[in-house]
Each structure stands twice: as C-alpha cells, then as structure tokens.
C-alpha cells in the first residue's frame, strides 16, 4: 500500500466555510509557525511521534517524518464567511490571539478575504450576515460554491484541495427522505427543500469537485446516505462530526479510565460557560439540541450499559452550555461525576477545565486537513473512521457502533498509519520480552 | 496454550501481610458478595467484560466466564498483622465500611485472626505493634513465615495459595549488593543485613514455598535480582509495586489523554489529604520518599520528554501527601495541571477527587490474587508485566521501560488473556468494515 | 423595653404549611435534641453567643440565656401538606436523615399528621396532591385554615402560635391592584382572584388570628401592602422571604468581603445541582423565575454599582438550577467569580459547596419561629427587618433598600437584641482600649 | 477632633524596605494611575465609599473626599533593597505587570534606585544580596538608615514621610529580654544581639525619626514593648503585621460567615502554590514557621472555640505553602473545609482562588501609607488597631485579643473615620425606619 501513496507535491489549498475564531486561530498559527514565531502545539501531525516495532527498538519517529504529509510551506488558505472581515480583522475581533502575535503576520492574513457565504437564517437564528450569496435555488448556490472552488484552485495554483467546515452549529434536523440517495438530494437542491442545510450544500459541492470534506460541527451535513454514496463514487474521503475539544475531550479521556477499572457511575453533570460567537449561537435551544445530541452519545458507547447494567444502567447524564460573556473564548467547563466502587460505596470527581476553545480546535483543523489530503492520495475514499480521534460524534459505516474511547481511537489512527506504511501493528502483548529474559538468566 | 492451563479446582488461600483497612475491606467485601449482600464493583475479574473478535460480532463475555479463575466460593483468607485484632475488629476500627454491612458477616470475619507479623521499627517509625514474631535472625523469621504458610494450607485444605502484600509503606532504600543474587540475599538473611526489609522476608518465604507474590506497596520487596531469579527458578509469578488508586490512577488516565493530543504540560501539582493509618505512616519523610519515588515516575514514562522536549521538557512535577485526620479513610486529592496548546497558549485543569482509599484498593487485591493464581496455573513464572494495569510503579524486566499509560496496560492485560485463550489479538485497525461497505453499496 | 417583654410561658405551637424535607428535618431534629440524641448545630438561638460590653469584659452569654425564648421542651408542631404522609413517613421519604436517627423518635413523629392543604395547581405545576381542601372560594379556604389554627391551639393547649411557610416555590407573579389594601384583598378572596396564591391565604389566616408569619419561600405572600397593613393593625410580626441557605448564603458572605476590599467583579456564574422535590418544582421555568428574582437581587444591593460603576458596573450575573436526581437533597453549588484588582488585573475564585439543603434550612425554621414569637411578646409588629439575616430577599419597609450583606444583617440582629434588653450597642470603635494604654505606660 | 487634623500639605515620601514584586507593583501602579493609564482597583482610599447617616439619606462619599488624605500627585517613592536593580528593572523581573504597562512610566521608575539594605543572612537563608550596608554594629546600621531617611527627605523636599515594610519574611523568633524596653533594645543594637532582626532596625530608625511604620510581613519587628513604648513617646503611629491577601483574606471573609450561622467546623485544610521570591523564601522551614504562626491564629479568634467547644473544639487546621515555579507570582490557593450542620450532618466547601499575590498586596501598601500618614496628622500615636483590616495578624494593645473578622475590622475602620470626622457611628439597628412606617400608615 505504501508504494501506491501519491507524494505530496505542489500546493495544498485548505478551504474553510466559517472564518471565525477557530479558523482564524488556525490560519494565523500556521503563518506564525512558518515564520518561526510560535510552536504548533496540540497538532499530532506536527509534533507527535509514533512508536514502531518493539519497545526495545526505540523507534519513535515524528509522524510527519513517517507518513508523506503536505509541508506547512506548501499550504494556502481560503474560505467563506457571512461577514466581510478579512482574516486579520476576524482574528482581532475573535480576541483569541494577542495583537503582538498577529502583528508580524498581518500582511499574510489581510490577503485572505472571505468569499460570499451560503447562509440560511432558519438554521442559525442568532447570527446575521451581510456577505451572503443570493440565488434562486439551493442547487444554484451549490454551483456557485463549485465555481468558487475552481477559481480558488486556479488563482492559487493548487495541485490539491481539502475542505474543513468551521462554521456554526445549525439547528437540529434528522435524516429524511431527501437525504436517502443522490437523486432525491439533487431534486431537493433544485426544490429548495428546507431539510437541506447550508453545510450540506458545501459538502455536496466539495464532493462533486473531488475535494475531501471534514465536518467540524455537529450538523448532519455529510452523514447522510446521499453524500456517503457520492463520496465513494467520486473517490473522495469524508468524515465528521464535531471537533472533540474541551469537556467532551476530557470525558472521552476519563470515562474509559473509569470503565477500565469497572467503577460504576450514577451521574455525570457537565456544565460550560463561554462567551464567544459559538456560545451565542448555542443559546438558541434549537441549535443547542444539535450539540447536545452530539455530546450525549459519548458515554453510552464507552460504558456499554447493556453489558454492565449494575454499573452504568442508571447513569443520569446532563449537559448544560451557558452563554457567559465575561469569559469570551476562554471556555470553562465544570464536571461533577458521581461514581461508586467496591460494594457500591459512592465517591465523587470534580473537574474544572479552564480551556480556550479555539486554541484546542485550531490544531485539529490542521491535522484533519493534512490527514484527509493523505487519505485522498492513499486512495482511501468514503468515511474515514480512523480519524474519529478528532470528533465528538464520529461518522461510521451505517450500522457500525462508533468508538468514542479516545485511546482506542488513537490506536486505530496509529495502527492505520502503520498499516498503510507497511509496519507491524502494535498489540501491547509484550510477552516476548520475558521469554528473552528467561533465556538470558 | 489454552489447553495447558490447569483448572481452578479446590480451595484457593489468599494470604495477606497487613490486615488493615485495605485487606479487611476486601475480605469483608468478598464475604458480603458471597452472601448476595453487595456487588464487587471495581473488580475487573468479577464485573468486567472483554471484547472478542470483530466489533460486529458482538462478543463481550464476562472475563470470569472467559478465563478459568477461582470462584469466590472457593476462597479462604489468612494473614499477618502487628496488631492482634481479628478481621472483624480491624474492619470496625478502619471505619471504611458501615456496621450495617459488617454485622451479617461478623462470624466469618471474626474467625480470621492475624498470625504474628515480621516487623522492624527502623522501617516504619510511626507504627508500634504487639503481635510480632521474635527470632534471632531474619532467616529464622523467614522460616517462621514458611511454617505459617504450610500450617495455613493444611488447616484450610487449600489446593493453592497466593500472597498479596497489603502492609504499610516501608522507608526508602535502594538496591544494594545484598539484593544481587540469591546467595548474597540468603547470607544477608542470616546476618540480619539492615537492607533486608520485612516485606522482602515475606516475599522470599512465599517464593520458596511456590506461592505467587504481589506487592501492593511501593517497597522494593521482590523487585531485586535475587528474588526475580528465585521466582523464575521456582516457577512462581511475582509482581508489583504499589496499588494504583486515587490520584495516580487519575494521573495515568489523564496524562495519556493530554499526550495523545500533543498538548504541552508545564507543571503538575498534586496534593492529597487523608487521615487513616496510611496517612500517619506517610507523615514520616523517610516513608514518604518511598511513595514519592513510586508516584513521580509515572509522568516521565507516559510523556517521554526526551522525544518532545518542547512539550514536556520543562515539566515541574510536585506531589504532596498531608495527614489530615478529619477525613479518615476518605482520601481526597486535588491536582492543578498547567497545560499549553496551539502557539503555546496556557490552560489549566483542576481535578478534585473525593475518593475512598480502601474502596479503590480492595478490588485490586482480589483481582491480583485471582490473576496471579491464574498465571501460576498457566505456567507464567517470574515478573507478570501484563498485570501492570494494577500498579503505580510496575515491575518490568531489568532494563525494560515500564508502561504507565493505563490504556496500554489494559490492552496488554486484555490481549494477554486473548493470547492465552487462543483468541485473535485486537489492534483496532478496522479498515475491513469499510471494505465491506464499498462492496455492499 | 426589656421589662415590657412578655415571658415565654406555656406551650408554643409551630404551624408549618409544607411538611416536606425541610420541615420534617427540623421537627425530627428538635425531637432528637430534646432526647439528647443530637445537637442543634446551625441554630443561632440554641448554640450562638452574643458579646456584651467591651471586649475586655469577656461577656459572651448564649443568646438563649440572654433573651427570653421559648424552651424546646415547650414546643409542639403541626402543619398542612398536599400528601397524607405523617411526619415520620415524610422524613423517611425525604432521605435527609438516617433511619438510625429517626427510629428512636418515630412515635413523636408519627403523631404529627398533616391537615388538608390549600393547593392550586396553576401555581405549582410539577406537584400533585391528594390531601387538599375543597371550597367554593379562596375566602372559604382562608376560613378553613383559621379553623385549623383554632383547633390546633385548643387541642394542644398552646398559649402562643407562630407560622413558618416551608412549602414550595410558587410561580412568579407581581404585585397588582388586588394586593394594594385589605379591602381589595378580601374582595379578591371572595372572587377567587387568580393573583391570590395559596401562600397568601395562609398568611392572611395567620395574621387574622394574630399568629406571626415567616415566609421561607421566594413567593410574594405577605410582602404586599394589604397584608403589611393588616399585620400592623393586628399587632402581628411578619417577614420573609426565602430561607438563605447554600449558594446565596455563600454569596452574601463572599460579596461583602470582595466589596470591603474594593475588588472589582466582572462576572459571577452560579450553578446548582439538586435532586429533591424542590429541584423538581424549580425545573418549571415559571417557578424558577420566582427563585431567580429572589437570588439575583443580592449582589446589586451589596455592591452598589451606582456608587462604583468602574468596579461593578459591568457585572454579568447568571444563576442556574439543574434538577439532578443522583444527588437527592444533597444540593451542590459551583460558583465562578471573575474579579479584578490593582490596575484591572483579572483573578478568579471558584467555590464548590457540597451542602445539604434541608440541613441548612432546618435550624433557620426553628430560629425564625423562636424569634418571631419573641417579637410578638416584645410588641414588635409588622415587618421584622432585624431578621433579614435569615432571608435571601428580605422584606423591608416600602421604599427602603434591603441589606443583603450577612454581616450587616448579623449586627442588626445582635444590636436589636442588645437594644431590647437594654445593653449598649456595639460599634467596634474601640479607641478607648488605646487611651487606657497611653495612660498606663 | 476633626478640627485638629493637620492638612495634607506638601509632599509625602513613602519609604519601602524591600523593593520587590509587591513594592514595584504598587509604585508602578501609582505612576500609571497618575497618568490616567490604569485604575487603582483594590484601594479603599482611592475607590471606596463610606455611608454616612441613615440609610435613607443616601450619603455615600468617596473616602478620599471625606477624610483629608495625601493626593497621589504629592507622593514620592524611595526604598532599600539587597539587589541593585532600579524599580523599572525590578518590576520587569517580577513579571507581575505587562511590559506594555511599564513602558510609558519607565522614566519615573528608573529614577528610583534602591539604597543599600540592612541584611542578615541568618534571617533569610534563601536570599543573597549584593547591595548591603556594612557596619560594625547593628546600632551603626540603624544610624545609617536614619541618615538615609534624612537625605531622602531633604533631596525630595518632603514635608512628611511614612515607611511600609515590603521585605521578605524573616525566620521565626520569639519575644525575649532584649525586646522588653528601649534601654535593653539599644544595648542589644550596640552588642549585635542576634535576636534583633533587620526589620527591627528599620522600625527603630523610622520611629526615632518620627516616621510612621507599617509592617507588611509576619516578622516580630515593631510588635515588641521596646518599640511600642518608643512609638508612644515619639508620637509615631505603628502597626502590623503581614498584609492580609489571598488565602487568609478568604479565610477571614468565610469563617465569620460560617460562625454567624453557628455552623460547626471539623477541619480546614489550606494549601498554596506560588513561584515567586516569596515562595522561595518560604521554602525554608524557619521562615515558613513565621508565616504559619501568623496564618494559624486567624480561625481561633474568629470562632472562639472556648465559647462553642461543640462546634469548634475539635477543629483541625493545617496550612501548607508549596514553591511551584510554573505559577510565578500567580499564587493559587485551594481550601477544603469540613463543616457540619443541623444534628451534626457533614458538608464540605472547596475554594480555589486563582489570585495574584502582588496585585492583591499593592493597594494595601498604598492605603496603609495614606492612612498612617493621616493617623500621624490626627495625633493618633502608637498601635493603630483600627487598621487591622489590612493585616493577617493585627498588632493590638498588649493583652487585648485581636479581631480577625474582616467585617468587624471594616466597621472598626469606618467608624474610626466617622469618629474623627465627627459623624454618627453606625450600628445597623435601624428600628426607626419602622417607627416612621407605623406613623405613616
């Protein structure tokens, strides 16, 4: 398989619907890293190592030296937004990065101006935008996005493109007839079906153009039969949904640990305070519901209450998100976990995470862009479950239970890289170290 | 291999040096579980499941139904202690379990009376005991323990025995000449070498008698060449050190998660308050040092700062244990973790764990007893690294770096079980689910 | 004034609308205290001291030895509830107190059976009751309550009565015409005016019967001109509203401290989790609003943003209450406070209070009953602002700003007691200690 | 008394032994405030209001408009330090304030160069200094400090001076014969008595020169009969000890609140992490002991366990300070408080204060300087107990119990200001509001 991977020659264009706090933090960061002004901390592709072979071989190359990823110097950025601010202005408004860091890369950031966005107020009530595409049908909007894609590719001389959705959470909708196959879907586009959301239009346009698509919000987007089918047909990698940051990140770290030790859980209360645009959008119950569904599923998969009803059968799981302007982008979570151990004795865990929303999300956008580009060159089309490591609500093959345990997700990711590069998979068995020991004594 | 495992017929005697809070909580719990009065929560052997085969096969048997473990009804308990209280009295004094739970099993607990202990005040200054073996040399003490073992086995009609150290933390010592081989060690026993601690005398006696030995304290004990060699020669499984509970449990859950996401860590401050006998012993700096060394190593192995000096090279790690009587056995930890992400931006995590020391440790004692017994019957002698899941400071082959990441430890444990039972090892690759998908579409 | 206080002779009947967790915890506690089984911790009247005279005099009598309060042995209890459970059954269901404590006082508790309640489902949607008074008009309901009062007094041979509302939070209503004077109010009673709530009917009945009335919920109840006027006319002490426990207690402790030091506050986020009947009722937004209004006012009074807009002008204050069954009555609050100091530098305070709702409220009910009875005997009629110490939202003279600072409230309470007993008021000036010093040197 | 207060004409020189983080933060702040670049938040003298008269009068002037304090524009700064860094350099090294704030006031700060310090390594083992006075005896050192004082006053044209100790915590010593009167003390100075610490030499020099002296560290310093006597004789105000910031500030806010409600306390565990020079000095057990004694006394005074042994008699109070470099000046405290309420039921409070040491201390230095200068002009000599509001361990008249309750301290301060300005003292009685009410109805 290793031999068949196309090399990462030429420029890679990263196209982003939603040039808000997350996207601008990522773009500014990449530009700062290129100039040696900062470190790409939190990015597995840039700073992570991978163990190869036995523990005693001491082979731990950087991931970027092990698999052929695009180089940061070969990346160009583009995107769409409902506001006209260029990336410098948007980054300043987002108040995530200090001006002292933004100043030296101002010219690079100012150059990136948002293309007009596909926007539908029925999907996001708490936002208003001025930089909006106007067209008679959703199909026309899709065509306009495709035209944007072509223009961007030509103007920037890109050899490859990848698209990562960094836009807002849309209101909650469920899979319906219009999503069942590509014919129904295209009919729906032409008929302005209300169940086709803006993010679906971007995904459709990307897949039609052969551009890998990763979905960073909990929206349904490309997790519908019509687009899965189209992606397979067109040989395009797709995946999602919802960047795994903050509280859910902590949850998928901690829950596997409690489960590993067979500790019971009676209740898990999670609350968040944040004051950025994301917090404002999620103040609308319809949009919160989309998020809530994405966040709630996590525990059930990890704990498998049907196998251990005496430990997890009565678990009460509640999630709250509160808009709290004084914190801005500095999202903060507080979790109360009511566990019980030997003979049912109760214990409690409280976790207070003073995090930064965009700081945690930005390296995920970069990693996904680079890995989806790799997947395309490695001829891996359709759903990329091996990247579920990055998602709150991983898209899987229909009927296949997703893995939310971040450690299983990490092994899946690492063993996939080992697999495509022809290295032995790692099982952590390790009995052989002690075979040798016997003989040497 | 599966066919060669001896079945778990007859009675298993679990012998415990140190019948304090942890041991009595475990024993009382097993008796309560046998009578259907409580659930063995926190015990992987009693409540855990193991996945076999592909995700779609839905095979998740209970571990105790998958591997041939001793049945709880076939277990008898014995032990040594520096106080003369029987197990009922000791359990009441420990104030871990409610009287309402102890009452119905009082007869079973009262029957278990501690044998006279090997004790050396130079190793544990803050304890005094009255139920102490007297003998001219440490060798004589070892012989006396061996006699206890024989007597216990005969009197209780056991077919097999296993020993789990639940005694206190001894003062800090380092490996010395007297520990290098069995001849030097036995000379030391005869010469009352001060570097041979009480726990080593128990371990030596156990191994000589062919009894598997697990070390629940951070003491050096069986982690010395002399006893490793003796264990291999006698075909005895051994392992340690230090039950992984409370704060270190949380640390080996959380640190792998932060490392998985390449988040940097600048500082990790861990403090504990506890008011039981363990807290009293650790109030002595010499004993705390033994504990501290055991607890400190954890992060370095998981984070591998030599591979990522920019993320973990400057990590300041500090651990404090404070004797605080109002909490009794209800140990409580508070961790402050200073992390940094994308472009070096700082974030913080605070964890407050209101735990119960003995409630977390008790099921570990049971699991270790059952798994060490299994190992013996499966002809796995010497160090049992596959059980490092249970230890703060896992004993490994000399020169082999221990794995502290609890998730790698869990996979190691599970894949070892699969391996000895002839099942496929699990790699979480899972690309085949998508091969099928392609074809089915 | 001291001489005019009527002594506390004969029996005092404490009548309680709402025999739920709070009331039964109070009643059971008083019975347990009478039998020497427990201590009345948290009750200022039973355990508090009061300083008299100069610091150097060392006069600190118990409050109950200083002012003539009813003795616990002279108290009898009665009440109304929408359920028919007697106080023993209700206490068992409330799961606040252990069975071991309730057992010895079972006979006393079983004897107390709830009278039929005045209930109106439009005011409390999340409760249903079976023990309900039926009558054509609200006026008839009031007469029925008055009859209950008379019967209780006669049957129990009481010389005095006091009523403390321990029922649920009613839906939010604002003061209207029907509340403006006693004529309008009595017309409303006869016409079943929807703006007359059940708690108002109890308050009216009590005042008519000369029984002091304290309101432990945030309901409007007796904080209307009609009932204030009636109370003055009838010489009856009244007061409220909303027992100050848990999070608001902490807030009125902490906020005065931050204000004392002129520290600025940008945001205060307060969240609660609780799983008792109170939590269930407050899950209804209409009822939560009543509570929210009561809890929100606290900060504004203490911080006086109009005087220091640069410190408190932009304070964002948000309060959340979450129904979380795993915690039962063990209410838990978490506060995040964003403060700023010298030159505007930000700091944060996080408070996690693992409290018990009824345990904090019960002694307040007792204290209020005893102090309202004292007020009556001291001829203090109308609003008792000196007891604002116990309330989240103190009732004051119309147009008079309430004091929420718990320390000013405490001085007010203590100086009132000193005042009525003819002792010097305390100002903490204390310059005289240093005058003496000058002369003695 | 009001008429006798000397007006604040001319320049006030603030002299500071110890130009470290606290002092430079204060000085830089005052310069920034003078230029309108920042706000003096946390300073009662600059931003606080004081209520005068009845609540209904609505008279709340700023304190600085009510009493005649020195104007910030009339202040000049000077000081001593063991390092030669000027205030700008020291402020940069302290890393408390951002460079962006320090830049515009660089010229003012650079001008302030430390005079050579009195230093004795036996008192502070963890510091080394290069800017040290050399002299044969401690008396000569005192003379040299007096000369510095005179020179500073002349060179800067000051009409008045005040000295505030901002130096480090010295090792623990107890009052001895050499401290009993001024003759013994001056003999000790001449004989280099080891029980005379550097801070005592500064205090002696100040008092001899008629300069008010406030002690911001927990050192014994001026809390000895010799210096109290000298201060009275020379008409000089003195006071201390130990600026009340961070954890102790919170403790003296919270403990009075719990005590007010008669809630019992079984244990209070307080831990701190900090990484500045203060943390380094306190890493030495001898110096920590001085601090510990200062911090421990607080609870005993507030709770008065001798009056309520059933509530506070068994309180276990433990304080830890941990040097933790990653946090720098951002001191962080964590408190666990084990309380109990009605019938002895236990509850817990956890407080996590993410504070900034110097940001909290700086305004205290300024307030103390201004109030001590006022005291001098108002002819208030000797111990200024009315300023105990600012101190962890307030100096009081010999034999007089200090008040640690911050709210009593605040009333004491405010009523003292009202007293010297001829306003009515406030008692919070307020019954008259209801007298009026009666009549108006």
UniProtKB/TrEMBL annotation, chains A, B, C, D:
Signal peptide stretch: none
One Pfam family here: Inos-1-P_synth
Regions that span the bilayer: 12-30
Keyword DNA damage in annotation: no
InterPro entries: Myo-inos-1-P_Synthase, Myo-inos-1-P_Synthase_GAPDH, NAD(P)-bd_dom_sf
GO BP annotations listed: inositol biosynthetic process; phospholipid biosynthetic process
Oxidoreductase found in the keyword field: no
Domain Myo-inositol-1-phosphate synthase GAPDH-like: 246-358
Molecular function GO terms recorded: inositol-3-phosphate synthase activity
Source taxon at top rank: Bacteria
Keywords from the named record: Membrane, Transmembrane, Transmembrane helix
Coiled-coil region list: none
Homology family: Belongs to the myo-inositol 1-phosphate synthase family.
Listed name of the protein: Myo-inositol-1-phosphate synthase
Native species: Chryseolinea serpens
């Amino acid at each position: 398989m290793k031999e068949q991977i196309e090399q990462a020659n030429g420029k890679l264009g990263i196209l982003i619907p939603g040039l808000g706090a997350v996207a601008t933090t990522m773009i500014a960061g990449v530009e700062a890293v290129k100039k040696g002004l900062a470190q790409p901390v939190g990015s597995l592709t840039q700073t992570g190592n991978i163990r190869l072979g036995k523990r005693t071989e001491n082979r731990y190359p950087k991931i970027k030296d092990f698999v052929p990823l695009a180089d940061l110097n070969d990346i160009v950025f583009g995107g769409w937004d409902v506001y006209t601010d260029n990336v410098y202005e948007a980054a300043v408004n987002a108040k995530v990065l200090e001006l002292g860091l933004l100043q030296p890369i101002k010219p690079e950031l100012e150059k990136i101006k948002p293309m007009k966005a596909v926007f539908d107020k029925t999907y996001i009530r708490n936002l208003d935008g001025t930089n909006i595409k106007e067209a008679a049908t959703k199909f026309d909007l899709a065509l306009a996005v495709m035209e944007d894609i072509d223009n961007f590719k030509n103007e920037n001389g890109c050899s490859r493109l990848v698209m990562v959705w960094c836009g807002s959470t849309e209101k909650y909708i469920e899979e319906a007839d219009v999503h069942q196959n590509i014919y129904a879907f295209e009919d729906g586009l032409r008929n302005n079906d209300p169940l086709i959301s803006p993010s679906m239009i971007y995904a459709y346009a990307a897949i039609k153009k052969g551009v890998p698509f990763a979905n960073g919000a909990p929206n349904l987007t490309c997790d519908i039969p019509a687009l899965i089918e189209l992606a397979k047909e067109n040989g395009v990698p797709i995946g999602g949904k919802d960047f795994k940051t903050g509280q859910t990140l902590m949850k998928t770290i901690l829950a596997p640990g409690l489960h590993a030790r067979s500790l019971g859980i009676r209740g898990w209360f999670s609350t968040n305070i944040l004051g950025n645009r994301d917090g404002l959008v999620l103040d609308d119950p319809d949009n919160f519901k989309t998020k809530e569904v994405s966040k709630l599923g996590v525990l059930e998969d990890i704990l498998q209450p049907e196998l251990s009803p005496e430990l997890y059968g009565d678990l009460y799981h509640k999630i709250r998100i509160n808009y709290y302007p004084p914190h801005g982008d500095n999202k903060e979570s507080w979790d109360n976990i009511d566990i019980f151990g030997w003979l049912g004795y109760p214990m409690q865990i409280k976790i207070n995470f003073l995090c930064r929303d965009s700081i945690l999300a930005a390296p995920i956008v970069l990693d996904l862009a680079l890995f989806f580009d790799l997947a395309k060159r490695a001829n891996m089309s359709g759903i990329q479950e091996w990247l579920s490591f990055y998602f709150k609500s991983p898209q899987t093959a229909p009927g296949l239970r997703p893995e939310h345990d971040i450690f299983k997700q990490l092994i899946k990711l690492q063993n996939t890289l080992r697999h495509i590069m022809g290295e032995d998979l790692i099982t952590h068995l390790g009995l052989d170290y002690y075979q040798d020991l016997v003989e040497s004594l």
